[in-house]
Amino acid sequence: MNESKINTYSYTVMPQDLDGKRHFRAVSLEMMLLNIAGKAANERNFGAFKLIDNGGISWVLLKFAVEMSSMPVEDEILSVSTWVGKVGSLLTTRNFEIRNQSGEVIGYAATEWALINLETRRPINIAADNEIAECATGVTVPVTLPGRLTVPEPDQNTPRHTVKVSYSDIDFNGHTNSTQYLQWMLDAYPIEKIYESRIARLEIIYVHEVLYGETVDVYHMDQNDGPTLFVVKDQKGNDCVRARILWK
């Protein structure tokens, strides 16, 4: 791969990244990767704020997948490399490699994005932007993006956590921040199970945006083969976000 197309950053694990058992929070992991994606896009001249200010368009995350062989600890300095995988007319991928303080690879992540017009909320042609298209490397990571990720329809016995979307949930695109859905999911899950386990693989599909003032229901379903399925539904019963966590 052309090294000039790779952006690498350091990240120091802070106390706020840790939970009550001093485990690295999954929300901090996703937030770290998305912030690094934004920083890399800014340096390549196609960051969200430039696109918003110049054309009223912005990036929207559609799919997210990460696999970790181990989790970092407090004060550890990570090295995270990121690059654009492929660029199509409506979709683009961005990949990540995560190394610990000893230089060992401890994780990979893959993401899929679209560009939307913030007024119409409709997708636009990504490949038409030469600065984005020229960054495509064609290089993948050993982490596959989720497919449809089917989640069974919840019933009256499925654990439910209801959330009303508030100010702190909303990002600069005017809808719920991508990481906030994961926060809702883990808030809905029994804390003792989170403390007893570690996330080995996390995959999320963002289906439909959720706006300020709306109310959503968060459901989780433990599967016999190990993973836990999550779904966030609006009050009409539509899926907004689907996710799966494989515990270790």
Output the CATH topology of the largest domain: Thiol Ester Dehydrase, Chain A
The biggest beta sheet reads:
10 strands, antiparallel
- The unreliable regions are none
The mean pLDDT is: 96
Tally of DSSP helical segments: 5
What is the straight-line distance between the termini?
32 Å
- Outline type: globular
Q: What percent of the residues sit in helical stretches (DSSP H or I)?
A: 10-25%
Oligomer: single chain
Key words describing this protein structure:
single chain; 248 residues; alpha+beta; Thiol Ester Dehydrase, Chain A; 2 domains; ten-stranded antiparallel beta sheet; 5 helices
Question: What is the secondary structure topology, with strand pairs?
Answer:
Elements: E1 7-12, H1 26-43, H2 48-55, E2 57-68, E3 77-87, E4 92-99, E5 105-117, H3 130-133, E6 160-164, H4 178-188, H5 191-196, E7 199-206, E8 215-222, E9 228-234, E10 239-247
Antiparallel strand pairs: 1-3, 2-5, 2-7, 3-4, 4-5, 6-8, 7-10, 8-9, 9-10
Helix pairs in contact: 1-4
If you had to describe this structure to a student in words, what would you say it looks like?
The protein is of the alpha+beta class and 248 residues long. The chain has two domains: 3-133, Thiol Ester Dehydrase, Chain A, CATH 3.10.129; 160-247, Roll (Thiol Ester Dehydrase, Chain A), CATH 3.10.129.10. Helices cover 19% and strands 35% of the residues. The chain is built from five helices and ten strands, in the order E-H-H-E-E-E-E-H-E-H-H-E-E-E-E. The protein has helices spanning 26-43, 48-55, 130-133, 178-188, 191-196, and strands at residues 7-12, 57-68, 77-87, 92-99, 105-117, 160-164, 199-206, 215-222, 228-234, 239-247. The chain has a ten-stranded antiparallel β-sheet. Strand 3 (77-87) and strand 4 (92-99) form a beta hairpin. Helix 1 (26-43) runs antiparallel to helix 4. The longest helix is centred in the N-terminal third of the chain and has 18 residues, at 26-43. It starts with 6 loop residues before the first strand and ends with a strand.
